[in-house]
Amino acid sequence: MARAGAAAKPKIPATGITAGLEKLGLRRPLDFALHLPLRYEDQTHVTLLSEAPAAGPALFAIKVRAVTVAFRPRRQLLVQVEDDSGRANLRFLNFYGSQTKQFERARDEGLTLHAWGELKPGYLGPELVHPTISKAPEETATAAPSETLTPQYPTTAGVSQTQLRTRITKALKDLSLSETLPVSDHTRHLPGLTASLQFLHAPPPDVDVGALNARKHPAWQRICIEELVAQQLSLRKARLARRQKGAPVLRGNGSLTNALIKALPFALTKAQEHAYGEICTDLNQSYPMQRLLQGDVGSGKTIVAALAACQAIEAGYQVAFMAPTELLAEQHYNKLVSWLAPLGIKIAWLSGSQKKSERQAHLSAAASDAHLVVGTHALFEDTVDFSKLGLVIIDEQHRFGVAQRLALRQKGNNPHQLMMSATPIPRTLAMSYFADLDCSVIDELPPGRTPIRTRLIADTRREDVIAAIRSAIAGGEQCYWVCPLIEESDTLELQTAIDTHALLTEALPDYQVGLVHGRLKADEKISTMRAFADGGLHLLVATTVIEVGVDVPNASLMVIEHAERFGLAQLHQLRGRVGRGQRESSCILIYGKPLSNTAKERLRIIYENTDGFEIAQADLQLRGPGELIGKRQSGVPMLRYADLERDADLIPTAQKIADQMLKETPALTDVHMDRWFGHAEGFLKT
Question: What residue spans carry the region label Disordered (predicted)?
Fold first, then answer.
């Protein structure tokens, strides 16, 4: 026992294998049991050197004949080996002196070794490059070391496959797992959890390897359902916890909302009316709304958000409206001022580039009499106070991290939250990662929006594209030219925004060409965008800072340089910057050769589709959910084993089981979630 007053000993950081296991999240016996293989090696039979397969690895039982360290053409360890059928060489380009001694000892003592690897032709004859070597038991020297397929686990530096297998085998032996899922029509045909784990860690050699690798084997199906159920439980509990929190009831009297609708120069679409109706109902509840408003590019989400803001203001509360970039935030601010200021609504504006005196004035307004506060991430800084925050509106919500959204929400007493996204979310993703949110979809475009014609042009025809730009400007139109990089890159030989601006300025001497990119100062960006919006610039060369929210109705031609380098969602967003006026609009995608298969597929999809939801579904298939939505953004633990595209048919089953557990066995729900998420983020934070 430490004596009184003694300083506590500092915690010694984990080292070696302990640190590696910590990094892998392996702490409890359960963690080891749930650490499942990536793939398998078939070491259940020994192959003679003369009968090695033409392709693929095999297990060989060999004896060492000679050990040599060669220095030409580079330092390497060469080990001559043989079995009853012939000879071969083992070649190691990276090796330790201890390995050399071990092979010399095996040669001197006549030991039989097992070597796992792919036998290929080499300069000195057949060879195995960096095979896996182990000592064969003398009593069964030519027998296979395993009666089951050998699992290969995800690992990290300092942790070997052998160490993992030893610990996992012990964990499985000592572990007693109770079943948490109910026996139902959905699970009756599948093996239990314990049986599935035992099988996947040591499958028999006669297993259907195709089904095993594709994770369609019943044992894998059980694991995937278990994990999906844990995720659905997490999302449902997050929803229930949210509904138990009190929130201000924002029941307006209709004075502002009706006045705004009456003043608009256009009529709302049926989809906009329906979406606002759902939001209005939520705002009338005594628990915080958490609704995602989805709509394709140009579908009119902002006016729906403005109506929600009016309802909150009618009820005597403030509204915070946050956008990811200063460019987009200022555009929202200007649009909201034009709509709402005539109704007597006071709007404050906060951004990182404001002068101190201007910022202080708006901070004071936010803390006192401002009805609506618009800004960027500056809104959730500690210096920003609200007098009576009732509604938070977040545009392009996927661009903000969990901690950022949570910080803004904590500035009020559980304010209602409306998140907007112009990046449509595929159904399978929404069912799994957004199941705790209420979703509204604006699935029709306002009347008058002209369809955008998409063209694919090779970069060898750049002069044709410049001619199209010249013709469009001569006809009174404005154009965008988007580039993926700002300056030259050593690794990507792409046409840059700066070079393109210089080239186009020279090629179009009679017209005004502007340049905007992320490294410009905020006031320079805003000044350039304002000049373009006011018609002072004919052509705007830009990086993807114009991807979201920029609205210039007279811009009818979009050129995207090196389109093969962009993702589908980006291409769709950029294309949506045109087609906002009465003119027929076009988007020219310039591509460089050679094209990878993935790039060809992306360009084909964007060329053939204009519907954002179809494009998002194709994007999910190409990239997978991990790239479309990460743990940092969603607050939901990413699935380790289930795959949203591959296992889409299991999600409804997981939802039904989760609902059944909450109703019939609520005590098991926390056990089940802890089993699968353990120390990870198990609950949705925001």
Answer: 139-161
